[in-house]
Design goal:
This protein is α/β, with parallel strands linked by helices. It contains seven helices and 38 strands.
Length: about 350
């Protein structure tokens, strides 16, 4: 597939005030990174630290900000826009919609091998892939796409234009909003991890809630979102979950927050709006994170955070022998603290006269 540069700019003109410098008839065959793009490919420059790669790039056209316009003009054809990264994101969506392999462009709307319960309601333009299963009273709104081997439980509701890739499971009663995208292998609505100890055994607590997911949510491959125990697990509008993320029962995640791969949120934690959680980080159960809280990768959040900001909680990597010595020292901090407090009480003058490091 090829697109003229003029057509690309025109297609996004409703969202961006972009200027094209160069030949509008230049044909673009694909999108590519700045350093590897060829004379038929379009790329972008969003961060000043990559400015040095611009002059040597062979891309047919580069999307840049006004700050890089002069350098881009010296190199050749370019598109000038205030937010090149956002522009490029929209461009990738345009490309996928136009590409022949885009979802829904070819093939039957409902594969003959799929099972659709007679009580299910499928609105117009719903696509169901091979060997998918759709349960009783499930409601699939207009334009929903269900990939091969998906399992849609009873009483599930999927909003308009939501897309489930292959092997997604949406358990009984769960609700997804409009324009959601769920990647392969994700499980929405499995039982939460609820057990009561009794006489040396674990007694299962039935999980009676569901999962409620808002609009424009994206859920990564093999991510699991547990259904609530009594109340619902809630993922609000615009949330983005990476691959292999675990969301425990009764968790609530606010609008437009994002969690990177392998992050875990334990039961009944509440994460505010516009938060980020780095890869491999853990939020313990029953904690609250305020809006605009950002957690570094591999951190463990052990207390509620009530003020916006960037928080880190991890032991820096080091040579193993040194790390073990430092870890052993940390174990003694409480004893040293108590000794220091006792010394302050018995000899405050001695402490006041002790030499201070400059």
């Amino acid at each position: 597939m090829t697109l003229r540069l003029a057509d690309i700019v025109l297609s996004l003109a409703g969202e961006f005030d972009a200027r094209l410098v160069g030949d509008p008839d230049t044909l673009i065959e694909r999108l590519a990174p700045l350093e590897s793009a060829t004379g038929s490919e379009l790329s972008f420059l969003s961060h000043p630290k990559y400015l040095g790669k611009l002059a040597t790039s062979l891309a047919a056209c580069v999307v840049v900000s006004p700050a890089a316009e002069e350098a881009a003009r010296r190199r050749g054809t370019c598109i000038i826009v205030d937010d090149p990264y956002f522009y490029f994101a929209r461009l990738t969506r345009l490309w996928k919609q136009r590409h022949p392999s885009a979802v829904g462009s070819e093939g039957p709307s409902r594969h003959p091998s799929a099972f659709i319960d007679p009580l299910a309601q499928l609105e117009a333009d719903v696509m169901v892939g091979a060997f998918a299963s759709i349960g009783a009273r499930a409601v699939l709104a207009k334009g929903v796409s269900v990939g091969a081997h998906c399992v849609i439980g009873n009483d599930v509701r999927l909003g308009a234009e939501t897309r489930l890739e292959a092997r997604v499971t949406v358990a009984d009663g769960c609700v997804l909003g409009q324009r959601c995208l769920v990647h392969p292998g994700a499980v929405i609505g499995a039982d939460g991890f609820g057990f009561a100890p009794h006489a040396g055994r674990w007694e299962k607590i039935e999980q009676l809630g569901i999962v409620r997911i808002g609009d424009d949510v994206e859920i990564g491959a093999n991510t699991c979102i547990d259904r609530g125990a009594l109340q619902d697990t809630v993922i609000e509008d615009g949330v983005k979950l990476d691959n292999l993320v675990q969301i425990g029962h009764n968790v609530r995640i606010g609008q437009h927050s994002a969690l990177a791969g392998c992050a875990g949120v334990a039961g009944s934690a509440v994460i505010g709006a516009h938060c980020t959680v780095g890869g491999g980080a853990v939020v313990l159960g029953h904690l609250n994170l305020a809006d605009h809280v950002h957690i570094s990768a591999a951190s463990v959040v052990t207390r509620s955070i009530h003020l916006p900001g960037h928080y880190t909680g991890l032991f820096p990597i080091d040579d193993n022998a040194r790390w073990e010595k430092n870890a052993a020292t940390l174990k003694q901090l409480h004893v040293l603290r108590e000794r220091l407090k006792a010394l302050e009480q018995t000899s405050p003058q001695a402490l006041a006269k002790s030499p201070k490091k400059s």
